[in-house]
């Protein structure tokens, strides 16, 4: 059973927190789930995911130039305090490793920043698990016909990802009530808007 010192969060929880920190509070402290249709979208995304994963493997292997890859790798670290399944863990010709994550959307700058944080967390998990350098990662936007974005990680990327994880843990473990999203237009259709004060 998870205790305060072993609890680990998932990249999906990180993405929700970045979208709006209050989501973490309403879901974890008050146990109010989001609307079902969001879950439906996630499930549809997963189905598409599995199909595209098979279609794109060879194409991406050539494009990135990796020498080895593992699929759907479960990684967890009590140090990073994150657990998750990485779509692909690549070994690059220089011996370093890299996460490859599939997204079932079109590429958009706005979403890329959030996806980047997820990739950074995967990089931290790979380093912890394999004890190899991880200096870059890849995100494949499958709906664009497999657009692949390369991310070269910077020290501040790791600091930011760690700060987000720390804040989520503060909400879950201490009941800290976080700030609202900085973007009020997200509140218009939000399922929590009636209780979010
Ligand atoms: S109403 Fe706005 S601030 Fe509150 S949870 Fe929803 S998006 Fe976040």
Report the CATH C-level class: Alpha Beta
Extended strand count: 5
Number of spatially distinct domains:
1
- Total DSSP helices: 5
Overall pLDDT score: 86
Helix content, binned percent: 40-55%
Distance between the termini: 33 Å
**Strand count, sense and closure of the main sheet?**
5 strands, mixed
pLDDT < 50 stretches: none
CATH architecture descriptor text: Alpha-Beta Complex
Provide tags for this entry.
197 residues, alpha+beta, Lambda Exonuclease, Chain A, five-stranded mixed beta sheet, 5 strands, 45% helix, 20% strand, binds iron/sulfur cluster
Walk me through what this model shows.
There is one protein chain. The chain is of the alpha+beta class and 197 residues long. The protein is built from five helices and five strands; from the N terminus they run αααβββαββα. It has a five-stranded mixed sheet. A hairpin with a 5-residue loop joins β4 (136-141) and β5 (147-152). It starts with 10 loop residues before the first helix and ends in a 23-residue tail after the last helix. The model has no long low-confidence stretch (mean pLDDT 86). The site of iron/sulfur cluster has 11 residues, from α2.
């Amino acid at each position: 059973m998870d205790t305060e010192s072993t609890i680990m969060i998932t990249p999906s929880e990180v993405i929700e927190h970045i979208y709006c920190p209050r989501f973490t509070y309403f879901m974890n402290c008050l146990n109010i789930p989001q609307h079902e249709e969001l879950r439906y979208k996630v499930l549809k995304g997963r189905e598409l995911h599995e199909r595209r994963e098979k279609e794109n493997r060879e194409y991406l292997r050539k494009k990135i130039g990796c020498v080895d890859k593992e699929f759907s790798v479960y990684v967890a670290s009590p140090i990073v305090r994150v657990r998750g399944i990485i779509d692909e863990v690549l070994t690059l010709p220089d011996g370093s490793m890299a996460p490859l994550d599939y997204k079932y959307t079109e590429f958009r700058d706005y979403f890329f920043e959030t996806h980047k944080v997820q990739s950074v967390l995967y990089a931290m998990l790979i380093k912890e698990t394999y004890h190899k350098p991880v200096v870059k990662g890849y995100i494949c936007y499958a709906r664009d016909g497999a657009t692949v974005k390369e991310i070269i990680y910077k020290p501040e990327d790791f600091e930011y990802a760690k700060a987000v994880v720390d804040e989520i843990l503060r909400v879950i473990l201490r009941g800290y009530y976080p700030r609202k999203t900085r973007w009020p237009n997200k509140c218009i259709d939000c399922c929590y808007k009636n209780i979010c004060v």
